[in-house]
């Protein structure tokens, strides 16, 4: 399916008009703002359960486009990559970034103006400084026991 065919499947302002359970596959995919934040490694505090984001990126994340380099077959390389769906958003929303469109809709909040669905441009998220463009460190460069040194303060919003 090309971009035009995909766009034709998007109903007007679906993100405001429809509950997430009623979105079609193309609308669900279009909801992703392309920030890449969810592809950063996270550390969980075993005592408190709190989640901290690090600058360490998944081996498949492209640091410039902020997209997965092998999206359709990513599970072959990263088996624990979470495939978001209306069925599991309730379970995973708590560790998604506060700006994530899936989390926002799940929490019945509006999308931000920089979301490509509103701005009309996939570059707006980068221009607004919300994406991870240019700020990641690939996971193979840093030993896992040093990831704690790369925690990002207050990054999720
Ligand atoms: S955090 Fe949410 S909106 Fe951003 S890339 Fe991940 S799934 Fe898409
Ligand atoms: S496999 Fe792809 S989608 Fe999954 S975390 Fe890595 S870069 Fe992101």
Secondary structure: number of strands? 3
In terms of DSSP E residues, the strand content is: 5-15%
Radius of gyration: 16 Å
Strand order of the largest sheet: 1-2-3
Quaternary assembly? single chain
**What coarse outline follows from CA principal-axis ratios?**
globular
Mean pLDDT, rounded to whole units?
Answer: 93
Q: How many separate helices?
A: 8
Query: Helicity, in percent?
Result: 10-25%
Order of helices and strands: HHHEEHHHHHE
Characterize the main sheet.
3 strands, mixed
Bound compounds, please?
iron/sulfur cluster
Straight-line N-to-C gap: 33 Å
Coarse structural class: alpha+beta
Low-confidence parts lasting 5 or more residues at pLDDT below 50? none
Task: Provide an overview of this structure.
- The chain is α+β, with helices and mostly antiparallel strands.
- The chain is built from 8 helices and 3 strands.
- It has helices at residues 3-8, 14-17, 25-30, 74-77, 89-92, 101-106, 116-119, 124-127, and strands at 40-44, 51-57, 137-138.
- The protein has a 3-stranded mixed β-sheet with strand order 1-2-3, with no helix packed on it.
- The longest helix has 6 residues, at 3-8.
- Bound molecules: iron/sulfur cluster (2 copies).
């Amino acid at each position: 399916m090309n971009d035009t065919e995909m766009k034709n499947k998007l109903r007007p302002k679906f993100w405001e008009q429809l509950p997430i359970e009623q979105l079609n596959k193309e609308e669900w995919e279009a909801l992703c703002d392309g920030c890449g934040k969810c592809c950063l490694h996270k550390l969980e505090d075993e005592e408190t359960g709190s989640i901290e984001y690090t600058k360490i990126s998944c081996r498949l994340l492209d640091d410039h486009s902020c997209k997965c380099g092998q999206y359709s077959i990513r599970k072959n390389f990263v088996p624990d990559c979470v495939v978001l769906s209306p069925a599991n958003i309730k379970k995973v929303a708590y560790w998604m970034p506060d700006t994530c469109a899936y989390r926002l809709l799940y929490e019945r909040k509006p999308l931000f103006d920089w979301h490509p669905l509103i701005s009309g441009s996939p570059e707006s998220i980068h221009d607004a400084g919300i994406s991870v463009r240019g700020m990641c460190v690939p996971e193979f460069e840093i030993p896992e026991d040093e990831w704690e040194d790369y925690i990002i303060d207050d990054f999720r919003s």
